[in-house]
Amino acid sequence: MRVPAWSRGGKTILTAWALEGTAPFPLKLGKATVTDSFGSRREVDTASLALTVFPVYIRDMADAGSLDPLLAKARKEEEERKAALQQQAALKAYLFDFGSMDKVGGLVIGDFRKCLPVIARNTWDEAKGYGFVPSAALEDDDQAWIGDAMERDSCRLAKGIQFRFRADAGKYVLRAGVVPFEAEGRLSIGGTAGGTASVEVSKEKGLVEVEVQVGDQPLSVEMDGYASLRWLALIEKAPGDE
Asked: What pLDDT score does 240 carry?
């Protein structure tokens, strides 16, 4: 159920509808003027108002004052949401999408951030600060029937083949879309301040997430066998996060 509130001419108007089927209106605001989706207007007691998937517009509530605590709570939650987005937007993030230079996805971290595209022939470059070592196992793999740009293409990892990149020192969460050829595999993360870390990854899930401490060395990711590396995100931990 959704009940957005908005203002027109200094008066509060509510829009309400059920997500599916029917549902009772959740607020008791006394009698009110209700306009349906087809323009029909009537006066009803909100305690007996039944909602459907078609929105109705509620105004001139007899007990509109009971909305004040709810509106104040909604404003506070909206301020908190905006503050959280602002905090996320300030976080450092290193985002890579593998396998194509033109079909490139991104992630929302405060706002939308596009990934840096990486293809198999991008070997480690000290100046750029990222690349494969010594090179990706095979050419880029594009599964064109997959609509998600982050998931459709990839580069091949294998034991002895790393993707390496630089990041500023700090605490981060590393997430990667990586699919081993076997049912299970292990991803090793080198260059962390605490030494090499490793995490198991399943072919079914194809996703890893691990906290890492970045020092003054480049990070590297390497699988213990063949795997498709689809995307990688290193996102700074927000201050105060455990």
From this structure: 66
pTM of the model: 0.73
- Residue 40: CB atoms within 10 A of its CB come to 9
170, 109, 86, 210 alpha-carbon torsion, rounded to 10°:
-30
Task: Return the half-sphere exposure (C-beta side, CA atoms, 13 A cut-off) of residue 136.
Answer: 20
In 3D space, the residue among 182, 114, 181 whose CA is nearest the CA of residue 149 turns out to be 114
CA dist 192 → 195, 198, 206, 219 (Å)? 5, 11, 22, 6
Domains of the chain: 5-87 (no CATH), 91-236 (2.60.120.430)
Q: Residue 20 carries which DSSP code? A: S
Share of the chain above pLDDT 70, in %: 98
Q: Is the pLDDT of residue 146 over 90?
A: no
Does position 242 have pLDDT exceeding 80, yes or no?
no
In this structure, the number of other CB atoms found within 10 A of the CB of residue 32 comes to 23
First and final C-alpha spacing in the chain: 33
Residues constituting the chain: 242
User: Which tokens in the block code for residue 183?
Assistant: 């049912």
> CA–CA separation, 109 vs 35, rounded Å?
39
The first and second tokens of residue 124, run together, are 């480690």
